[in-house]
Specification:
By secondary structure, this protein is an alpha/beta fold. The protein is 39% helix and 13% strand. Pfam families: EryCIII-like_C (PF06722), Glyco_transf_28 (PF03033).
């Protein structure tokens, strides 16, 4: 089976697709993976092509926020999306796949698949496009609206309308031209793969049968290893792990000070992963009980932690939960408040803590609550480790009809 996987965004959007590409290739399928430039993910051994947009550079220079997207839309975000949409069409026509599996940002994927007469499969790491009455669209509304929950999912379809002109321009090169391209982009996919663990997200009863909650797409790299100094620190006693990924808004020094203070209040050491600048260590907080690194493989590091403090990104939530470690979620934007609520609802940590209220006092109390959730976290982690989301996703793809 020839599978074209298309993703776009930052590292968290690329890693699951790379894991699926590795698994599908190992199963004997011919796989091509389309990714943004400079994805920050090891793609060795994969047939990977670039999609002419560098989200890493955009985030590194301007940060991640809705206001960033608006401010730099005309100069960078819009042109980047335009190039990516056209590149996705180009690579689909070049590869001639039997099925197109795509991230929601790749708006031209459904039209390209339709033009070739093959199925297209939508991937949701966060369930933002499949309506349900059980909770509002993550990232759109942060509280239950009851009977209005389903209506919040209309917001997710707005991207198709926002980029309508670019979508039509990119699809003009398709066989038959761009007629019906917008309708195809809005039409239901042949199947939807929600790459999340049922331990963190119960499958809504009103999802259609074509939507599959597969479990997270996790594939440990056999060559991954912790830096010796990090491994020595991790094995030398309990510590608080803190990571905020690409979330750099606000004062990273103040956050670092709060994390170190909360850890010391509970007799813990601190390991700060600074990522793209979300955390920093001030000189007055330095000491032998604190280690700072830009990053480290979470799957290898997290199991050694007593608890974690993080931003609530889908990938980080799953990595920490898989490790059996309780967490304090400090959400910044988008789907992060949703995952923070899921962590709390499942007894894996306290209620999400606002980043604007991230003081040493508040975090000390939250870490105390998290430490009390350790047994529950270990139980859930064991169940997550038994899941094989990649196998479940591949089974759906192998069972797709030859024509949509």
């Amino acid at each position: 089976m020839r599978l074209l996987l298309l993703t776009s965004g930052t590292r968290g959007d690329v890693e699951p697709f790379a894991a699926l590409a590795h698994r599908a290739t190992a199963a004997g399928h011919e796989v091509r993976l389309g990714v943004p430039e400079n994805p920050g993910v090891d793609l060795a051994g994969l047939d990977a092509v670039g999609l002419d947009v560098d989200f890493h550079r955009l985030v590194a220079e301007h940060g991640i926020s809705p206001w960033t997207a608006v401010r730099y839309f005309r100069r960078e975000v819009g042109p980047g999306m335009r190039r990516m949409l056209a590149a996705a069409v180009r690579e689909t026509l070049a590869f001639r796949p039997d099925a197109v599996v795509h991230h929601a940002k790749v708006l031209t994927a459904p039209a390209a698949a339709r033009a070739l007469g093959v199925p297209h499969v939508l991937v949701e790491a966060v369930p933002v496009l499949t309506p349900t009455g059980e909770f509002p669209a993550p990232g759109v509304v942060h509280r239950d609206l009851g009977p209005l929950n389903r209506s919040t999912y209309a917001v997710g379809r707005g991207a198709t309308r926002m980029f309508r002109r670019d979508l039509l321009r990119a699809c003009a090169s398709l066989p038959g031209g761009n007629t019906g391209a917008v309708a195809a982009a809005l039409a239901p996919p042949t199947a939807t793969l929600v790459a999340a663990s049922p331990q963190l997200l119960a499958r809504p009863a009103d999802w259609p049968a074509s939507v599959h909650l597969t479990g997270a797409w996790h594939d440990s790299s056999p060559g991954a290893a912790l830096e010796p100094a990090v491994e020595d620190f991790a094995r030398s006693g309990p510590f608080l792990l803190a990571i905020f990924g690409s979330m750099a808004a606000g004062d990273p020094l103040a956050r670092g000070r709060a994390v170190v203070g909360a850890a010391r209040a509970h007799g813990l050491r601190t390991l700060l992963l600074t990522g793209w600048g979300g955390l920093a260590l001030s000189e007055d907080c330095a000491g032998p009980d604190v280690l700072v690194r830009a990053g480290a493989p979470l799957d290898l590091l997290a199991p050694h932690a007593a608890a974690a403090v993080h931003h609530g990104g889908a990938g980080t939530v799953h990595a920490v939960a898989r490790a059996g470690v309780p967490a304090v979620v400090v959400p910044f934007l988008a789907d992060q408040p949703f995952w923070g609520r899921q962590v709390h609802a499942r007894g894996l940590g306290p209620a999400p803590l606002s980043r604007r209220r991230l003081t040493t006092t508040a975090l000390t109390a939250a870490v105390g609550e998290a430490l009390g959730c350790r047994r529950r976290a270990q139980e859930v982690g064991e169940r997550i480790r038994q899941e094989d989301g990649l196998a479940a996703a591949l089974a759906v793809l192998e069972d797709l009809p030859a024509h949509p």
